[in-house]
Amino acid sequence: MNTAVTRNESGVTLSADARAKIDREIAKYPPGQKRSAVMAALAVAQDAFGWLSTETMDAVAKYLDMPPVAVYEVASFYTMYNIEPTGRFKLTICTNLPCALQGATAAAAHLKRKLGIDFNETSADGLFTLKQGECFGACGDAPVVLVNNKRMECWMHADKLDALLDELATAAITAKQVK
Hints:
Elements: E1 5-8, E2 11-14, H1 16-26, H2 38-49, H3 54-64, H4 68-77, E3 89-94, H5 97-101, H6 104-115, E4 121-122, E5 128-133, E6 145-147, E7 151-153, H7 158-178
Parallel strand pairs: 3-5
Antiparallel strand pairs: 1-2, 3-6, 4-5, 6-7
Helix pairs in contact: 1-2, 2-3, 3-4
């Protein structure tokens, strides 16, 4: 069971651990400005739950004393937030022009072919979701792939992409065996 988010008859409740993490973010802003921590609070909730359901966003809104629609607007504007379930590994490849000129288009085509999916789709085994991203600020390292919004992989041509997919699939199998 997820210890950071729990469900009850009134929806989703953030755990004490999640609230503590959000409180650390709130403390970075002037008193009375806790709404300023909405992006960090959404990241905490997403890390805890895997994606941001309406119920989860409602819990964040309640905790920050914000109208739920304001939280929905932030979550739906930024591509780093998952407002639909994703595979265990969300792979986002930068397809901006500088990356495209360095092979991102070919890298994206390789991933699509290898995974049997297109952008915004999840592989049949539920392991991988492929997303298209906009500038990650690493044009000199192109093509660039971001794994679960946390890990940036550079110079990702076919051989390195294959190695990454193998590494992630192995990690998923190992994690299953540990449970």
